Amino acid sequence: TNKKKGEMKGAGSSSEAGGSSSAGGSSLSCAAKEENVAGTALDDEEAMGRTENFLGVHPVRLVDDIYNFVTVYIKRSVDMLEAALMDDSETRGSAIEVAQGCAGCQSRLVSSLDRNVDKFELYAV
């Protein structure tokens, strides 16, 4: 990245030295814009590195681990709910409806989790 910055600076100054002022000016501004974009990308990488050092793990991996943990938690919770409903005397006869209802509940919870974790990942990363 440093090599590219040096090349861009050199390109801007050489076009400034020879040729018309309008061509040199546009070339210089283009090089400055490219340098700005490269500097922003470098700043983002540096910030990610600092965040990784602070947390001890890369932020994307942290979000993925949170997602996996919550998914397992949802599955276990729905399984416990289903077991409790199957043991209940009032719902024992409708095992198929209980199983279907719990499966629907689990799929809605997981889809809600997917949507919200995607939003959180965009915010956090």
UniProtKB/TrEMBL annotation:
It comes from the Eukaryota. Residues 10-28 have a biased composition (Low complexity). Residues 1-28 are annotated as: Disordered. GO terms for biological process: mitotic cell cycle. One of its GO terms (cellular component) is chromosome, centromeric region. This is Uncharacterized protein.
